[in-house]
Amino acid sequence: MSLPPQFTRTTIESVRIRGFRSLADVRFDDLGRSVALIGANGSGKSNLIRFFEMLSWMLRSRSLGEFVERQGGADDQLFGGRAATPTMEAEIRLCTDSGRHDYWFALAHAHPDRFFFSKEAFRFSKVELPDVAPWQYLGSGHREAEIVEAAQGSAVHAVNYNTARVIVSLLKSCAVYQFHNTSDTSGFKKKWDINSYSNRLYSHGGNLAAVLYRVEQEDLRRYEWICRQINRVLPTFDRFSIDPNYGKAFLSWKVKGQDKVFGAHLTSDGSLRSFALVTLLNLPPEMLPQVLLLDEPELGLHPAAVSLVGAMIKSLSTDRQVIVATQSPLLVDSFDIDEIIVLNLKEGRTEPIRANRRTKREWLEEYTAGELWQKNLLGGHP
Question: Mind listing the domains of the chain with CATH numbers?
Answer without folding.
Answer: 5-174+312-374 (3.40.50.300), 187-288 (no CATH)
